Amino acid sequence: YVYGLEGDHDLAKRQASPPNTWRTVFINHHLQAMLPDLHGRLFAAARQADAGCLFDPERGQLSFRVCEYSTVLPGGGLRAKFHHDRGSLITLDVMLSSSDDFEGGEFQTVSDDGTGSALTHAFDRG
């Protein structure tokens, strides 16, 4: 059983994807109850990735603002060149499929050198 709200059509529209190509279930604050080990591992990864740059990992008020389980279908994708997660200190993306299970798709971020160029990163299951 998956808790949350499905945001099929709204998210596809917001991501500029064609209809029926992007499905998302918003798990949000239910992640810790549903998958406590995963919650702990993701929170530890956020602390490690940031390592004192943006936030104090000891602050008790830190939490996951949004937790989404997304399925991107053929033709779907995030087409907004400068998409960012407003209100987030750090964003974690976890691939649940092997890259051998589908064709296409790239994980990109915007470089921090001021040029606005896209950086493509290796992204696979795990």
Automatic annotation (TrEMBL):
It comes from the Eukaryota. This is Fe2OG dioxygenase domain-containing protein. It comes from Haptolina ericina.
